[in-house]
Amino acid sequence: MQNNDPHSSGDTPAEDHTADAANPELEALQARVAELEASNAELRETVLREHAELDNQRRRLHRDLEQARRFANEKLLGELLPVYDGLESGLAVEAADVASMREGLGLTLKALLKVAENHGMSQIDPLGQPLDPERHHAVSMVDAAGQAPGTVVNVLQKGYVLNDRLLRPALVAVARD
């Protein structure tokens, strides 16, 4: 027999109980989904912030490196300014004798060498030392009485080392065997 009563739901009491039991589970699952979506949104926002922070750090690092490259020689050049000033002053003197001119050039050279030493550069002056092919370039061999064969007897051009790295070998003449 069919129940045509519009007020009757047609559900039996067992069906109502199952729907009531599923309803709290459904609500709990929906709450969990909402919680996970909120957590996902937070994580997504955190990732975006971290990505933006990395981009900003990358830009700052690039800018700092560019500034370091542009002004790397600032200290060296600042120390060279007195040397330039000394040379200009020496050239401005019209009535200087040779002795005072030599003395001024000697002082200027000494100042220049001091600046170079402050920045890790040193001269190679191998006079009287055995030939070192790593640091010296022999351009000639000469007879030298009283000198051991292979000894540097004349320095044609001094060499230079920067922090233990050879910039230019010394050009030398060596005693013949």
What do you see in this structure?
The protein is of the alpha+beta class. Helix content is 55%, strand content 18%. The chain has three helices and six strands; from the N terminus they run H-H-H-E-E-E-E-E-E. The strands form two sheets. Strands 1-4-5 form a three-stranded antiparallel beta sheet. The chain has a three-stranded mixed beta sheet with strand order 2-6-3, with no helix packed on it. The N and C termini lie far apart (133 Å). The model has no long low-confidence stretch (mean pLDDT 87).
Which strand order do you get reading across the main beta sheet? 1-4-5
Structural class computed from helices and strand pairing = alpha+beta
Strand content: 15-25%
Largest sheet: 3 strands, antiparallel
End-to-end distance:
133 Å
Rough shape? elongated
- Uncertain runs are none
| Rg from Cα | 43 Å
The helix fraction, in percent, is: 55-70%
Total beta-strand segments = 6
| SSE arrangement, N to C | HHHEEEEEE
Q: Mean pLDDT, rounded to whole units?
A: 87
Features:
177 residues; alpha+beta; three-stranded antiparallel beta sheet; three-stranded mixed beta sheet; 3 helices; 6 strands; 55% helix; 18% strand
Outline of the structure:
The protein contains three helices and six strands, in the order αααββββββ. With 177 residues, the protein is α+β, with helices and mostly antiparallel strands.
Topology, element by element:
Blueprint: H1 13-70, H2 74-92, H3 98-118, E1 121-124, E2 136-142, E3 152-157, E4 159-162, E5 165-168, E6 170-175
Parallel strand pairs: 2-6
Antiparallel strand pairs: 1-4, 3-6, 4-5
Helix pairs in contact: 2-3
